[in-house]
Write a structure and sequence with these properties.
Length: 211
Amino acid sequence: MGRRSPLAHAPRPQTRKRHGICIDDQVKAISGPIVLATDASVAADRIASGYLATTGHAGLRAHLYPRHLARPGVRVLVTELRAVYWGLKRILAAHPGHPVEIRVDNIEALSHLHAWQRGSSGMPEGYDTHLRSQGRTPTLVQLQMIAEYTPGLTFVHEKAHVGHPLNEAADSLAKLGLRCVRGQVAPTELPRLVPLWASGALADHRRRAAV
C-alpha cells in the first residue's frame, strides 16, 4: 500500500496458533467503476487469501491446509482462485448486474478464469470436485459457474509488488491472515487492521485516479 505495515516493528504477541479465521468488512466506497483486487499467501500447511474492492468490501480468510491435499504449486493456484471467489461473491450480492474488473497477479489463475468464461470446466490438477460436507458445492466449481454465466466480468493481469494500492492491500491482507493462523498476530487485532488498511489503500487509489 505504499507504506510500512503498522506491525512492522511490533513485538510478536504470544498467541496460540488457530485453525482458521474469516474477516469480511466494509469501509467507505470510492466512486467510479467497480474494481476488485485479490491475492493469496501460502505456507507449508496454511493458506490465506485477501481481497479489496472499490465498493469498500474487504476481507481475508486463512486456515490449515493439510500437505497431502495438493502439491505446493497447486495449493497456491487454488488459494488465488478462492480469493477471487470470496471477493466476487460479496460484490455480486451487493451490486448485481454491475460490471466488475477483477485484477489478478497470478497468470495461471488468470488462465483458468478466462477458460471458464469460454465454457471450460477444467480444474487445477488434483482439485477434488466432489461435494463437501453438508452437500456444499466446492468453491472453485462455484467460481467456474460465476465466471461462465455472469455477464460484465473482466479478468485482467495486475503485476505484483509494483505499488498498485488495491493489489498491495490484497497482498497485505492475505499475509495478515497467514500471520494470524500462525499465532504471530492476535485475532483481536484483525477488526482494527482490516478496515484501517482497506481505507488507506482506497484513499491511495482515489488519489492516483485523480492525477
